[in-house]
């Protein structure tokens, strides 16, 4: 027996096939625009912003503007799922759920375009969440500023929760983040003559180990931080001493002060590597994201509202070391982010992640109903 797929599950599968890196979401943008063109247009206004899209649905008796954000980019991961709607872009995958986020966004937009709210509604399809960060420049753009919502909401899929669970918390939800790129330059040479060269693979190995001591030895044990080096490059061939090496990573902290402390320790450790290995080093912090800090009142109100729904289990969760550039929007506009359970054994950024698609229609119903309810409040 074949069961027919919901239109938004189909959309998610279409989007899953075309993951694109940040600010290169050209096919994704075209796909979303094509779909948006099929909606009732009488109250709709559509704007492109770089590879993103803003859509406004005029309310019937607006007192304010309610906002929703869905991110669009994929990740440089070679997919290993069992899907028959596998990524068609080799080496790229929607492994952080942005395909679901966009499908849910289109579902919410469809519901509101077909049956407008009393309030105005703006949805932002935002590029480049995984980097270099689309939220801040979108927030600062003229296109967004003219339609700036009075409240904004976003969700993120959560592999560890069952479908039907929504988890969030008032206050801090996600960490401050900073990317980390460290380049080391020494002197290359023949593998047989190490005394005539200056080996940057060995320097990188020492640096990697010393970086691990920052969280364990420099931070108050009651504070929290993460330094993850996700990629190391160095050298060209097994019998050539490497002239250069590069470490790429990310830093996560719950406070801005701890971020400063971690960065100053990284700089000291890198200066030590320069001195002890006689090499040159440079540090680039890449993209930095503001922590995701949920508005206390709106989040409590949302959780209370959820608790009356028989289809949802509302959970107050702990903060996580995940980063999200939606934090910039929440620093400027009251609102909140929440986790949506998608029940899969593989975590975010894993090549085998297969989020449960039943969560898509559930999220569309919940988010649309929430905006309908909110729009009827004084
Ligand atoms: C939800 C999620 O997984 N977000 C990413 C954000 C990455 C920010 C930046 N590229 C970095 O690596 O610091 C995450 O890795 O938490």
Automatic annotation (TrEMBL):
It catalyses: N-acetyl-(2S,6S)-2,6-diaminopimelate + H2O = (2S,6S)-2,6-diaminopimelate + acetate. It is an enzyme of class 3 (hydrolase). The active site is at 71, 130 (proton acceptor). Keywords: Amino-acid biosynthesis, Diaminopimelate biosynthesis, Hydrolase, Lysine biosynthesis. Its EC number is 3.5.1.47. It comes from the Bacteria. InterPro entries: AcetylDAP_deacetylase (IPR023905), Amidohydrolase (IPR017439), Bact_exopeptidase_dim_dom (IPR036264), Peptidase_M20 (IPR002933), Peptidase_M20_dimer (IPR011650). The keyword Zinc does not apply. Residues 182-271 form the Peptidase M20 dimerisation domain. Pfam families: M20_dimer (PF07687), Peptidase_M20 (PF01546). Pathway: Amino-acid biosynthesis; L-lysine biosynthesis via DAP pathway; LL-2,6-diaminopimelate from (S)-tetrahydrodipicolinate (acetylase route): step 3/3. PANTHER family: N-ACETYLDIAMINOPIMELATE DEACETYLASE (PTHR11014:SF98), PEPTIDASE M20 FAMILY MEMBER (PTHR11014). Catalyzes the conversion of N-acetyl-diaminopimelate to diaminopimelate and acetate. Belongs to the peptidase M20A family. N-acetyldiaminopimelate deacetylase subfamily. This is N-acetyldiaminopimelate deacetylase. It comes from Paenibacillus thermoaerophilus.
